[in-house]
Amino acid sequence: MRPFLTTGGTADPFLPHLLEAIRGADQIDLAVAFIKSSGLAMIYQALDDAIEIRGARLRVLTSDYLHVTDPQALRRLMLLAERGADVRVFQAERESFHLKAYICTKTSAGETVWGAAFVGSSNLSRTALTDGLEWNLRVAPTDDADSSDSRRFREIRDQYEALLAHPQVQALDYPWIERYEARRRLVQYLPVAAGCEEPEEPPPEPSEVQREALAALAETRDKGFRRGLVVMATGLGKTYLAAFDSQRMGAARVLFVAHREEILMQAEASFQRVHPGARVGHYTGARKQTDVDLLFASVQTLGQAQHLERFAPDHFDYVVIDEFHHAAAPTYRRLLQHLRPRFLLGLTATPERTDQSDILSLCDDNRVYSRYLFDGIELGLLCPFRYFGIFDETVDYREIPWRNGRFDPQALENKLATQGRARHALRYWREQGRERTLGFCVSRSHADFMADRFQREGIRAAAVYRGSSLARSEALERLEQGRLQVIFSVDLFNEGVDLPAIDTVLMLRPTESKVLFLQQLGRGLRLHPEKEHLVVLDFIGNHQGFLNKPQALFDVGSSYRQLAEFGRRARDGQLKLPPGCFANYDLAIIDFLIRLQGKGPATDYQALRDSLNRRPTLAEFYRSGSSMQGLRKQHGHWWALVADQDDLTPDEAACLDRHAGFFREVETTSMTKCFKAVLLESMLDLDGFRQPPTVEALAAQALEVFRRRRRFIDDIHKDLRQVDAVDERKWLTYWKGNPINAWTGGNRKDDAKHWFEVAEGRFRPTFPVDDGERATFQAMVQELVDYRLAAYEPRLAKPTDAVTATAEEPKEGAQILDFPQPAAANAIESPEGTELPYFPDLRIACGHFRTGSTEVEETYRVPPGHGRVDPGRHFVARARGNSMNGGRNPVCDGDYLLLELVDPTKAGSITGNVMAIERQDATGDDQYLLRIITKQPDGRYVLKAANPDYPDFDANEEMRPLARLLASWSEDG
């Protein structure tokens, strides 16, 4: 029999009684005179679960009586109001309000089937809920509706309803909180009850990693960038980082956009703690608020034109885009074409650059800061792990239908929920598992099956999911207290819930998403005083659907070749791990990885598609390190490869039939500068294939692109590089004479087709784009433009100092050569050598200056014996000519050259070295020359040839040192 009276203190605290009632109710009514942040925090998760998971009705009534209630608590209640709670306040004025009543009811078909009402002395404070001596009477109805207990319970509920109608009760809103906060500062409230003096929760402080990221973000804005991507592993606080950065930037209005409601709700709480005085609002299918400081919006809703039009382009100072799936990319792009914040921050936890491709494109290819899971462990911010990749020997995944990048759900469940597989999991858990385990299952019935199987073995296990008999918050409490050993879950613990006590993660399902895998792993990586390391038991099957797991954990590239190489390193014990970590894969998994074969663009495409569980984009294909030259040799162009793989939609196939020539031109057109791609980006931004823009509008939009993509500014003539204050007339003339002229055929001497024309002052295509195909056409062109800008981004950037100025000492403030190499980020170190960026069209001349292209087309495996090479500083090009064919180390025509970019902070003296020198010709095209740098007695620098048949050159201010030659070799080795 339940006690009628709870007496508080350590022997009988009120909190467990209250939580039990909340977790069993579908109607929760609270009337509490004082609410402190400390007390609300103790029941907040249970209230949130009640609304979000069980769909319960929550009503809260508090007061301003004696000004004891925390403003911070009121603001947190507003988050519950965002989720559907009815939150009201009693304005005490001259009347006291000293109620403490908690009413919980469970109904069925409109009838009360269970209830509990507590009336007594406990306010919502930590002291009153835990160790304070507080008396609370419990009133519960019985089966007899006429019993005294049932009548009392109805009376309490009736009086609550009457109280809500009191004239001094009003709905809580942000303006009321702000007025209350202002007058509360002017009064000295009295400690009238236990817990009244408990302080508000202090605001969070940035961690070491967050401080580094904040500095990098401030620096990128100082350089003029308006967008940037931060890569930060789960558990390192990327959402808090966004909140801190928006605060430090002084953003008055912030927009946080995501594609899942759970992400938005988690972000709300983090931002509110950092921006305690801000008004928080939602813009989703159910709720659409606009007059707030922090707006949390679903991209599915806000991305629609009729909703975007409610906001002026400059309405938001700061926009955050959290991790998103590829299908939402066009919607995000539409949103960003409309909004023009002072800064846009993209966030992702995915380490592999191919997966970052879409969000990186939206952030102008400006990767500002990266910290991965292994970094977090090395810095002591996450706990070490012991990972066991266990072969799922009882399941042949090849027998399960695989559709649209995932297993058939019902067939998968039938294969996983078997006695044999449960025994297999149980054996490994007994051998390696620890005290508190979280198991991830594929479905509710799978979770129920596993919980039942473990319970039969005497293990304290439970299944927890939406609608389960055990609530999420209660399950976590039991696990923390040792009353549970294992929780089998479906989707409830992927993110947004802090589980520091978890010491074992049991992965019993395939995960289609690398982000999801990392989130599940991250549930157990939080630090806890009783946890030395996390045990990860990951069951891996014989199917490509599992390849994303090593890719996510070890940042392995997407190609089968890279995965096979990873398998060999795992076999040979050569995996690089943080201190205190351990990883072991069953031999069957290693053999499966090593047997992965495939060379060529089609196989690379298939591997990437398997990794992403969808059709890859061209930028993703490029960033995976696949050969663009091989693609064009075998298929002609990108969309032809996609067509060969039967991955075009009917609309795309029809569009390709009509516009194949233009698509090929966009993908392969010669670009010694970024201008052609920037013009197309501007055209798409202006929806120019629907309504051709004026030449003036197109030039102005191009200027906006350069203001965002600051790394491209060096392509502009030096007189116009001050893009924030450029003379618009001069800019228009310049833009007409460069890409507009090029796209309209003005620089072509032959009769080749030109794709655009200027007619009546507007820049328009010379080919028709029908209304019905326009959306598909523009999406296909955008994909090609994203690739061209991504491929151009890592071009060999020009330092600002001439040879004559930097031969011995770099000038103060000299630009560090920018060489972020997406294509080589997944460089594989092996006994066969290391992969470096390869510029097949660079053509380092060994004769006279020669024009070359610096787009990364592929990678090249440098043979061993050249010391430690770094894909961020070293690259490979080919020699052209014989001016260096002499001396002790001759360089012959066609030789491969291993070159190291000159970094002004590390260059030292270049005198006497063989250097690649860069200059621009009269048309602005880049040219390159290989020579020995010599300094003459009179101070002049001379570029000497090794072959006496070739002339020397005097260095001048137009020439810049690009890279130092380290080695050369012929094609046959």
UniProtKB/TrEMBL annotation:
Entry keyword set: ATP-binding, Helicase, Hydrolase, Nucleotide-binding
Family annotation (InterPro entries): Helicase/UvrB_N, Helicase_ATP-bd, Helicase_C-like, Helicase_Restrict-Modif_Enz, LexA-like, LexA/Signal_pep-like_sf, P-loop_NTPase, Peptidase_S24_S26A/B/C
A Pfam family annotated for this UniProt entry: ResIII
Residue ranges occupied by any Helicase ATP-binding domain in the UniProt entry: 219-369
Keyword Hydrolase: yes
Keyword Hydrolase: yes
Domain Helicase C-terminal: 421-623
Coiled coil: none
Gene Ontology MF, one: helicase activity
SUPFAM superfamilies: LexA/Signal peptidase (SSF51306), P-loop containing nucleoside triphosphate hydrolases (SSF52540), Phospholipase D/nuclease (SSF56024)
Name the UniProt record assigns to this protein: Helicase
Organism: Thiohalocapsa halophila
UniProt lineage: Bacteria, Pseudomonadati, Pseudomonadota, Gammaproteobacteria, Chromatiales
